[in-house]
Specification:
single chain; alpha/beta; Quinone Oxidoreductase, Chain A, domain 1; Rossmann fold; 2 domains; seven-stranded mixed beta sheet; 10 helices; 16 strands; about 25% helix; binds NADP nicotinamide-adenine-dinucleotide phosphate
Length: about 325
């Protein structure tokens, strides 16, 4: 069986978390697959740690972009380069790297080994371990691409981060603070000390407070919730401000309403990016970015990790330890 469409030539096997049918966490199985071989411009990485993300349970249950299994999920990687394909000169065997596999079709990091274009990786910051480095890539790239690339966030601007205690939210807060922004963040009241600890200036309890009353004159909203939250977020913006929603599908009402109010709205999907990973690594090196680790799981407990994540109540990140 081929893992993920990558080349295989029988050089050995590896353990992986796979599934044959869509369904609940119980469909996940630890299996032996052929170890992939790096093709031209690819590297083979021995995965040490791999973050879990909501896209993992969305694909596990509903196929989302990938359709029908069998497949190995996982986009986050921290590990060690084991071998390089023809022309892949960016890294050498033994190099520690971290990165996000091409989203969505480059999946497969919930395995002992994965192949990917060398350029999806960057050198792992030496000051953090593989658990940290495996937790950061997808959520950090998402937050970076939303706040910096789409919204061009500047020092002194005001940002509202919805779900600020979640995987994306808690790194978005840190990226916004590192850029000198003033940050509002929504979460349940019990998580407000956590929010203050990562730099949120004004925590908002979305259960008891209307965020459109609590946050005003905002330049940028990062919205991982979608639907009504995206629409209502338009109202907290200054003229010319922007809502960046990371829920990619939704009604065109969002754009119509943004136009009517003289503000902007964009929906995005995260995209693998070597340079983005280098910027994230620099922020980590400078001490401006750390993942909060909510839990780590061995491969045998992948189903339990999915169950924990699927509650939607995680503070920070869940990580699979693959070795
Ligand atoms: N477009 C993209 O490329 C992209 C990339 C990454 C993620 N995403 C999507 O973004 C969403 C968030 O991802 P994630 O990794 O951050 O998820 P996560 O870590 O599972 O988020 C959990 C957090 O969400 C908070 N939360 C839930 N509902 C909330 C609400 N209505 N208002 C405020 N906070 C709320 C929870 O806090 P409480 O317990 O206080 O409710 C919890 O701390 C997912 O749907 C994911 O698929 C999209």
């Amino acid at each position: 069986m081929e893992a993920n469409g990558t080349g295989t030539n029988g050089t050995g096997t590896m353990r992986a978390i796979s599934q044959d049918v869509l369904g609940g966490p119980e469909v996940l199985r630890e299996v032996e697959l052929e170890r992939p071989v790096p093709r031209a411009n690819e590297v083979l990485v021995r995965v040490r740690a791999a973050g879990l993300n909501p896209t993992d349970w969305k694909h596990r249950a509903g196929g989302l972009f990938l359709g029908q299994p069998p497949f190995v999920l996982g986009w986050d990687v921290s590990g060690v380069v084991e071998a390089t394909g023809v022309g892949a000169s960016l890294f050498r065997p033994g190099d520690e790297v971290f990165g996000m596999l091409s989203y969505p079709f480059g999946h497969g990091s919930h395995a002992e080994y994965v192949t990917a274009p060398a350029r999806v990786f960057a050198p792992k910051p030496t000051g953090i371990d593989h658990i940290q480095a495996g937790a950061l890539p997808l959520v950090s790239l998402t937050a970076w691409q939303a706040l910096v690339e789409r919204a061009d966030l500047r020092a002194g601007q005001r940002v509202l981060v919805h779900a600020a205690a979640g995987g994306v939210g808690h790194v978005a807060v840190q990226i916004a603070k590192a850029r000198g922004a003033y940050v509002f963040g929504t979460a349940s009241a019990g998580k407000h000390d956590f929010l203050r600890g990562i730099g949120v200036d004004e925590p908002v309890d979305y259960h008891s407070t209307d965020f459109t009353e609590a946050a005003r004159d905002v330049d940028v909203v990062l919205d991982p919730i979608g639907g009504e939250t995206s629409l209502r977020s338009l109202r907290v913006l200054r003229p010319g401000g922007i809502v960046v929603s990371i829920v990619p599908a939704g009604s065109d009402d969002l754009y119509r309403e943004a136009g009517r109010l003289g503000v902007r709205a964009v929906r995005m999907l995260v995209d693998a990016d070597h340079h983005g990973m280098r910027r994230i690594a620099r922020l980590v090196d400078e001490g401006g970015l750390r993942a909060t680790i909510a839990g780590t799981f061995p491969p045998a407990e992948a189903a339990r990790a999915h169950e924990a994540g699927e509650t939607g109540r995680t503070t920070g990140k869940l990580v699979l330890l693959m070795d």
